[in-house]
Amino acid sequence: MFNARRSLVLFAAVGFLGTAALAQGTANDPHRGGVSLAFSYDTLGSSLTNTNRFWMQGGAAELSGSFFRGFGATASVLGLHTANSGSGVPVNLVIATFGPGYTYTHSRHGGHAISFFGHALVGEADGFWGLYPQTGGAGTSASSLAVQAGGGIDFRVSRHLDVRAVQADYVRTQLPNSLSNAQNSLRLGVGIVLRLR
Length: 197
What we know:
This protein has one helix at about 5-25; strands at about 35-45, 55-70, 70-80, 90-105, 115-130, 130-135, 135-140, 140-160, 160-175, 185-195. The chain is mainly beta and about 200 residues long. The chain has one domain (about 5-25, about 30-195): Porin (Beta Barrel), CATH 2.40.160. It is elongated and about 60 Å long.
């Protein structure tokens, strides 16, 4: 079952680091400090075998803090669902990760800006309300290591709002599936970003 406490710890960690970023940053130096909260609609392409691909739908929340010249940290919680993984079995998945990130922002004329970001995150994947083969039978839930790496592009709409035009991440989990017990997936997302500083 999804471990909400672990996800809250991740968000608390990046929130604490983001507060430090606020304390360091100044309004006159855009390269120092910054905290943002992104909400996105996401789809995750995964597979049980090379010929059995399926797509999950869901959403994510990502809290990011930038400390110095674009370098910072990100905490991400991603929730996904599909009613049929190709074998008639539903899959429900929550992935909570945390790690370093980098953002490069290019200001354009008229105050508009475009930001390119990337991150490398590690955490846990929790599958629940599904079917996960295990020693001696099958369970309805399972957990594994999760690794997420990728990035995307944000467009500035106003001082406190960006549009996330695209986010693309490689996501690896190791949930039991009676085959390789490893999933290499592609995450695609779009959304909005609230710039808290």
